[in-house]
UniProtKB/TrEMBL annotation:
Residues 1-102 form the DUF6802 domain. Residues 93-102 have a biased composition (Basic and acidic residues). This is DUF6802 family protein. Residues 1-28, 81-102 are annotated as: Disordered. InterPro entries: DUF6802. Pfam families: DUF6802. It comes from the Bacteria.
Length: 102
């Protein structure tokens, strides 16, 4: 289950590579710290939990994350993208999953 309890100061959910993103809506970017797209604008922030690291990126700079990569300490990883539906709703879809180094 996604939980933010482990990061009370950040307020962002933490995931493992096997987590389901079902039901998770738009994720607002709080305090980006990294420039992953390398355009001089901070678009990414990283949350780390006991078992996994989550990398959130806002590629279109609308204030909401559209990409998420989760890498577990044992190398399992998964990647997700947020898709908006015509009716205004949206959902996270998994785009990749595997193990680092394999
Ligand atoms: Ca965005």
């Amino acid at each position: 289950m996604p939980t933010s309890a482990e990061f009370p100061g950040i307020g962002m959910p933490s995931f493992e590579a096997s987590s389901s993103m079902e039901g998770l809506g738009p994720v607002e970017m709080e305090s980006p710290t990294q420039d992953l797209v390398v355009d001089g604008i901070l678009d990414t922030f990283v949350t780390t939990g006991p078992d996994a690291m989550s990398v959130w990126t806002d590629t279109d700079l609308d204030g909401y994350a559209d990409r998420l990569s989760v890498v577990e300490n044992d190398g399992d990883y998964s990647a997700w993208e947020y898709h908006r539906n015509p009716d205004g709703s949206g959902e996270w879809r998994q785009t990749d999953q595997g193990k680092v180094g394999e």
